[in-house]
Amino acid sequence: MPYDISSSLHLAWAPKYRFKIPHGEVRLHVREIICQLCVEMGLTIVHGILFRDHVHMFVEIPPATRRLI
Question: Measured between alpha carbons, how far is 34 from 19 in angstroms, rounded to an integer?
């Protein structure tokens, strides 16, 4: 019997030289881009925090997507 088990992964991302992510509209745009990329890759964001200079995300990866990453 095949098992359908998803994996979870903690991702930390920081811009080059840890440049600060500006407040306001640009910050919201960065968040939208990250969410859009996760949807396109088939990832489910369980928890995510956008800090001033880095991003932490806890995502679930379905079995079919694991082979692509």
Answer: 17
Tokens of 19: 């440049």
Scanning the structure block, which residue is given the tokens 């991702």? 11
Is 1 inside a domain boundary? no
Note the pTM of the prediction, 2 decimals: 0.68
Quote the domain boundaries for residue 40.
7-66
pLDDT tens-digit map of 38-56:
999 888 999 998 888 888 9
Residue 12's CATH number: 3.30.70.1290
Residue 2 belongs to a domain = no
Cβ-proximal residues to 56 (8 Å cutoff; 6+ apart), any chain: 10, 11, 12, 48, 49
